[in-house]
Amino acid sequence: MEQHLFQLLEAINKNANLNQKKMAEICGISIGKVNYLIHDLTFGDYIFSEKKGRNISYFLTQKGIDFLQSGIEAYHHKKVNIHQESLSEIKQAVILAAGMRTDFNKPAGLMTFEGITLLKRNLDILQENGINDIVIVTGYKSELFEEYPEFKHLTFVENKKYKWTGSMASLAAAQPYIANDFLLIEDDILIEERAIRETLSHPQRDCILITNEGGSGDEAFVEIKNGYLHKISKDIHQFNYIDGEMIGISKISYEVYTKMVSEYHKNNRNPFMNYEYMLLDISRHYNIGYLKMHNLMWGEIDSWKHYTTVTEKTYPMLKRKEAKFREIWIKSHLMDALDIAYEDIEDIQPFGGMTNKNFKVVIKGKEFVLRIPGNGTESMINRKEEKFNAALASNLGIDTELVYFNEETGVKIAELIPEAETLTPKMTKRQDIMELTTANFRILHFSGLEMANRFDVFEKMVEYERLMKEANGHPYDHYFEVKEQVMVLKEIYQGMDIQLTPCHIDALPQNIVKSGEKKLYFIDWEYSGMNDPMWDLAWHAMESEFTPEEEELFLTLYLQEDEVPLEIQQRMIMNKIFQDFLWTIWTIIKEAKGDDFGTYGTDLLARCRKNLNHDLIREMTYVQTK
After folding, report:
1. What is the CATH topology of the domain spanning 92-302?
2. pTM, whole model, 2 decimals?
3. Where's the MobA-like NTP transferase domain (predicted)?
4. What is the pLDDT of residues 364-400, one digit of tens each?
């Protein structure tokens, strides 16, 4: 990050009229990253800009010139490089929350900001960045964490000797749960989201996060030598030169962590030792890197004085800054995808979404929808298949035209539906809406086209159960009893002669958008594939909360017949059962990864159990067992 700042400042210093595309080429980074850094440098008063028409020129302030003159410190490998492997993706975090905070009478992480605990805020940031395996080391008032249902998916470890030990003892207590590189966070830190994001992406597997000296009076000063950690101390008199202040966020490799714990257990005679000094000891022989972030908004909360300052001053400023950088982040996706200028993006508005982040964006007067995939979707969705299937739907005229689709990231941009009105269960019950909905289903199901994949509900059950175990999800009550009954139905269902057709798979009302009076669009083709067409009809009927009479009307409109054949009725109720059971597992996975769906999952399982007692099901299973 710091290297890119210097490169960018050097490029601007040489040519004030460079556009951001040229800056990106010079620095070897994306246009979006350049835009992000430009805003950071402007915010920090390192540069200023002048606009002439559509062109912008950038100039260094005196502060920027001084910073550039300081140069980039050369990296010299004078210690052992402990890592042979390249940077690994971080999937785990350890939060140290054992320390006593008598001012609050509770752990610092449970202090609130606008009704949200500091711990919940940090958990949300971690999960936004793909970290769902989170270990909390508690001590002081550890029982209070049990009062927060949003923490039920976390792993808790208690340091029972927290009164007589330092943070290294707490970190060592987490050892049974650590098997890979992880992010270490102290529970009393309020910090910008970008700090965690950039620490995770930093190229060194071991690095501490530092920033400019804050003057709080309790700083852990840091000195860097030859590009690596050299000294940490709270005693300013020990330093010839101070490179920054340690914040309380570090990225630690499994190898270095193992050496820290081993050294602590073998040779330590001071139980009050803190982890940062053990890390410093390890750095005598092994390279421990650093990431310095300038103008970082953050605060430490370990007293009422700190809490008051952070609440009244730091947090409001941090929120405003994060909002601005989130806007830049969204615009960066658009700029990289469409090769447009920052100024071309005129407006961004949140646009709902149960799993993904959707935004309505206006570019040069034209409206689009930007989708940024939500947390955990990468393991459950094949983006290449989705892209193929969504294009097929677009060609059929039942979805809007795709403007951009990234198979690696899942980022998608599509034209905004004119006069868009998302359906509600109440709307779907109207006959005119049913006629439009069934017409779309008929176009899709009778198209004769082949989607890129097959959606096999039973294979998905196996796959989702595997993901549920990996996420440490906890099945609801009656789960295994229901599963046994579902497997009996599986044998009956697979004995039927069912012709597979292209299916949407997730045709709930929220994924159907009305445009004007005579047009509907099906959106979000993430789960689409070849399947029994009754799957689509059954899911839509359930999520629309059709009465038996409304469902009968819906089916006769689709079939264009006066009566619904018995086999269709049987397939409808069986698909309802399979769907509720599958999406129950899906909900358990999502909740294990930090999402909160309330009673949605348990309601699905309850409806599944109810449908298993349907007369048609009892009749079929009776014949099967007989």
Report:
1. Spore Coat Polysaccharide Biosynthesis Protein SpsA; Chain A (3.90.550)
2. 0.63
3. 93-215
4. 989 888 888 765 555 568 899 999 999 999 999 999 9
